[in-house]
Design brief:
Shape: globular
Number of strands: 8
Order of helices and strands: HHEHEEHEEEHHEEHH
Largest sheet: 4 strands, antiparallel
Mean pLDDT: 69
CATH architecture of one domain: 2-Layer Sandwich
Low-confidence stretches: 1-9, 154-181, 221-226
Distance between the termini: 31 Å
């Protein structure tokens, strides 16, 4: 029973935005109704055109916002994709999350809504925080503060830009409702993509099924199971 209650109360996303000033209930409600997704773990060379090509298979796209290095204004490994409808947003998270783009397994998650300024990296160097961690930037800062006799911790540009490390993107006062949905013609594209994804998954699961065992070894196997 406790597990059932925990599942019923579970958040729609593991993402925590440390800059969101509302309540957890308000944040979860935005995640449940938003038509925006966050895309992480992109290569620095993935283009906006590639994002449109892949993500439009789940529905018509209103806007793509590429994540940029705050200082250099160059791509830094993430983006936001805004759909016209919630249905397409849910299909996107369901079918594209975990797929491969430019040899990277990309992460797609529900987002509470893009606001100006969130396209920039929040690490101390202007990149994503996860990039600064992986390149040892924060270790160097800690060492410098320790050598100077400074206190624990250090300043950041605005918090985390890594979903699983906790979010750190500015919050706007409101999130506008999405415009009326696009023409029904897009459904054919989405359904084709869904069928293709489900077929690929079914094939993959079939390959993982164990081959029929040799009857000569069945007795030995049953003994091991006992």
């Amino acid at each position: 029973m406790a597990r059932l209650l925990k599942k019923m109360n579970a958040s729609i996303s593991d993402y925590i935005d440390r800059k969101f000033h509302g309540t957890q209930e308000e944040f979860d409600e935005l995640l449940r109704t938003s038509s925006t997704v966050y895309v992480g773990n992109l290569t620095f060379y993935t283009t906006e055109e590639q994002i449109y090509e892949v993500f439009s298979k789940c529905g018509d796209i209103k806007r793509v916002i590429m994540g940029l290095h705050a200082e250099r204004k160059t791509p830094c490994g993430f983006c936001f994709v805004v759909y016209y409808t919630r249905e397409d947003t849910e299909d996107c998270v369901k079918y594209i999350n975990g797929t491969t783009l430019d040899d990277h397994a990309i992460r797609v998650d529900f987002d509470w809504g893009f606001q100006e300024g969130r396209q920039f990296g929040r690490g101390v160097t202007g990149a994503q925080v996860r990039t600064d961690w992986s390149t040892g930037v924060y270790d160097q800062l800690r060492a410098q503060k320790a050598a100077q006799g400074g206190g624990r911790g250090f300043g950041r540009r605005g918090g985390y830009n890594d979903r699983r490390s906790g979010g750190g993107r500015p919050r706007d006062e409101s999130y506008p409702s999405p415009p009326p949905g696009p023409p029904p013609a897009k459904r054919a594209r989405r359904n084709d993509y869904v069928a293709e994804a489900e077929g690929a998954r079914a094939g993959s699961e079939a390959e993982r099924e164990p081959r029929e065992r040799n009857p000569r070894f069945r007795d030995d196997d049953s003994d091991k199971e006992d």
